[in-house]
Amino acid sequence: MKKCESLFVLMMIIGVPVWAQDNLDNQQTAVARKVSDVTPEEDPYLWLEEVTGDKALDWVREQNKSTQDHFESSAEFSNLREDLLKILDSDERIPFVSKSGDYYYNFWRDQDHERGIWRRTTLEEYRKEDPKWEIVLDLDELAADENENWIWGGAQLLRPDYDLALISLSRGGADASVTREFDMKTRQFVVDGFQRNEAKGGISWIDRDSVFIFTDFGEGTMTSSGYPRIAKLWRRGTPLADAEVVYEGKPDDMYIGAGHDDSPGFERNFVQRTLAFYNDEMYLRSDDGKLTKIDAPNSANKSVFREYLLLELRKPWEVGGKTYQAGSLLVTNFDDFMAGGRDFDVAFKPTENTSLAGYSPTKDHILLNVLEDVKNRVYVLTPEGDTWKRESLRGAPKIGTVSVRPVDADESNDYWMTSSGYLTPTTLYHGEIGGDPEQLKQLTPMYDAQGLHVSQHFATSKDGTRVPYFMVSKEGIELNGDNPTLLYGYGGFEISLTPGYRAGVGRAWTSRGGVYVVANIRGGGEYGPRWHQAALKQNRLRAYEDFAAVAEDLIIRKVTSKDRLGIQGGSNGGLLVGNMVALYPDLFGAAVCQVPLLDMRRYHLLLAGASWMAEYGNPDAEGEWEFIKKFSPYQNIKASVKYPAMLFTTSTRDDRVHPGHARKMMALMYDQGHDVSYYENIEGGHGGAANNKQRAYMQALAYSFLKERLFPKK
User: Fold this and answer.
1) Which residue has the higher pLDDT, 578 or 27?
2) Is 686 one of the catalytic residues?
3) Which of 108-122, 173-187, 232-246, 681-695 has the lowest mean pLDDT?
4) What CATH number did the domain enclosing 470 receive?
5) Quick check: is 571 catalytic?
6) What residues have CB less than 8 Å from 213, skipping those under 6 apart?
7) Band of the pLDDT at 691, cuts 50, 70, 90?
8) What confidence score (pLDDT) does residue 33 get?
9) Does residue 80 sit in the same domain as residue 128?
10) pLDDT score of 399 more than 90
11) 676 CB contacts (<8 Å, ≥6 apart)?
């Protein structure tokens, strides 16, 4: 894992403030009326934004009952749900671990541990087929003792003794979390130890008696995105109110945080100011509290590891008399850079069909993960004088998706490597750079993939751009236009969709005769920053044009037809699905829209929505609603148009994407007479489910809906 990487990457996993109802009156204090200042007359479904309002929840229960009554009466649905639960609870899954001190830690859920256990073992034991584990914390016992539905959020152990940990927990899987200090010897939470109340934010070790904390400290201490605006240094035994302010951001910043780099011999403290996604400032904090900015572009991903500063450029950068290409990875000596030096080694430079998927420093090397037309290639960089020697990682698989990460970057050149494919169960390797990797674990096949085939194709988008997509189908599929096909996509935030073993998809769809397609549309990261930036803000429609091009290519190739083609996506992918239905209703027969954004007129006022304005734009900024309204499904649905059948799913406890998006769209389309279904899980956060039972139910619901709508009637 990269050291001190930008907090916009980490913020999706480090917990949050409790949802607070928007005060519509307060939104109308400006002299000029904002686009987002709608009235109940303009938006008759505004009341559904009241997340826990009695009227809104009564509506949710009514919709849920209708959907449950329809599907739960089917024996096929029950069997599928049980099969999917067996996959999720299977003991045959790989228990991935992370190393802290002498132990290798894993968090595990199965049928006997619904909420899960945090456990550890040794490397010698882990190599065995059936390792012996030592349970450190049982979340089911904790939840029962405290009468609270705690969901695991992660743990940070304190070097060098690893006898204390900071454990993050959330209620029902929300982003909002609490943090508690935990004694690894007594296996108890520390009375009067470091604690953080429920909020978005985090807490991280500096040393045994001090931490950085960034959280909700009270009125005015959170950003408009609902994330921490202030970071403090808190010393043991002192009131939190007396903690020293390290940095205070502006209300319209996105996120403020601080962290300690505990690499032996290279200990440093950093402050991160995230203004928006892919727009952040990083500061070195000296022992006397002085902050010195790392003078690199805000758009660059900045990380510090031991003596090195690594910069992943998202835009071209002219510095030191040279211009470096967007998508490049630059390396230099950190101390030299802070002293004014601007000499860089180019560790990676993108080409037309390659991009940097990731990089992981080890003690003496850098592991580069490169995407070549959405297929992984792993290389080792080794410093040799004034240059870096580059060679392929020995033993790395040549097919499938491959990822690598260090075992303990500060101490060794050992690494974990995983390989996976749509039909190839995930395999875990352990290796040391310079030697051949050892296969440690392989996932037992969880569905019958015999006779299935994976292929890659390219569609041509409206502006001539070649858009890759993967297809999983029967070998020698008959191209008769009658194959039930599920098209999946995301297209946002520079996230790449690479092949991986999807046991649920295999069991519920492809092994039952369905075709599964993943579209690598713009907005994602498959070809680096340029692929992402091509679909930002006023260019957002390009992502939807790409998705439509893939759908049309499938129909032209006679893989499927409109009546047999379904689509699925969640979060930003839910926005994708909403727009495909609104803008291309004649292309699809069914759509599953999960934890979606849909009302882009008000998205920035709801929960974490303001943090995504760099991606979509600001509806209240002059001129921006003119392009945003073109990809706001809630405003583009019409009673006179026939749309594909839709299933909306969301979570009451989702405090990242507001459930009001799905609720309002469902209510609007239902009242207009369209074919729509709805299910809202009461727990689950942005993932939609808090445990494996809920996850299996939600998956069974989606696939049952798609099968009912797309498969030929018997």
Assistant:
1) 578
2) yes
3) 681-695
4) 3.40.50.1820
5) yes
6) 194, 196, 201, 202, 203, 231, 232, 233, 234, 240, 243
7) confident
8) 74
9) no
10) no
11) 645, 646, 647, 648, 666, 669, 670
pTM exceeds 0.85, yes or no: yes
For residue 276, the enclosing domain spans 1-19+93-293
Residue 307 lies in a domain: no
Same domain, 112 and 80: no
Six-digit token string for 297: 């572009």
Q: What is the CATH number of the domain that holds 155?
A: 2.130.10.120
Distance CA 79, CA 83 (A): 6
Structure confidence at residue 227 (pLDDT): 94
Q: What are phi and psi of 273, to 5 degrees?
A: -115, 110
Q: Which amino acid does the sequence have at 2?
A: K
The tokens 């990457």 sit on which residue?
9
pLDDT over 90, % of the chain: 88
User: Given 170, 571, 611, 632, which residue is catalytic?
Assistant: 571
pLDDT average, residue stretch 387-407? 92
Among 249, 270, 293, identify where a domain stops: 293
**Given 263, 360, 686, 704, which residue is catalytic?**
686
Q: Are 692 and 88 in contact (CB under 8 A)?
A: yes
In the chain, the number of structural domains is 2
Distance CA(587)–CA(473), nearest Å, equals 20
454/470 Cα distance (integer angstroms): 7
Strands (E), 495-642: 515-519, 565-570, 590-594
